Amino acid sequence: MGIDWGDVPTWLGGTFAAIAAYGAVATMRSQRRQIEEQRQFLRAQTALLSLDHRQRTQAQALKVSLEARTNKDLGKRWWTAYVDNWSDAPISDVQLSFGVAAPESAGTRHGGAAGGALELSWFLKRPRSVDLDAHISIGARGRVWFFSVSWREHQQPGLAPILEFTDTNNLRWRLDHYGDLTELGSGDSGAA
Description:
6-stranded antiparallel beta sheet, 2 helices, 11 strands, single chain, 5-stranded antiparallel beta sheet, alpha+beta, 2 domains, Immunoglobulin-like
């Protein structure tokens, strides 16, 4: 008895086609799983970037400006560094230094808006002194100014102000008067 070779190629072709179909289905499932994992990763990454953007947005809303002041009668000069919080949230643990030197004094006006958005009532309020030994906070749209130690007119210390503060997300930041912003990490581990 002989083998009917006409049916063997058909059976082999059908078997290989079934194996190929199974491989294609397995590949599609694997690709779907990979695509879903990539979507989850992208969602998580987008959420982190969004959080980072929100955190940086508050920190970027601060401005440090510097002004040289002179008292001709005494022949003395000093720096005044203005810290304007343009954000809608307060900042805390504010520290400003002029290079390595601490400020001599600081002041603010209650209810004053930051920068150029001042109201007439702001000018009518007397400035109040800020205790440099206390934890300094600047409210939303608030302003605090810091005065450097004075020096004789012929001297020029050239010390630019450096601001460190903690935002509402408990992140510690450093900002110089050039606008360079650096995240220092958690406010719990930062300087107090």
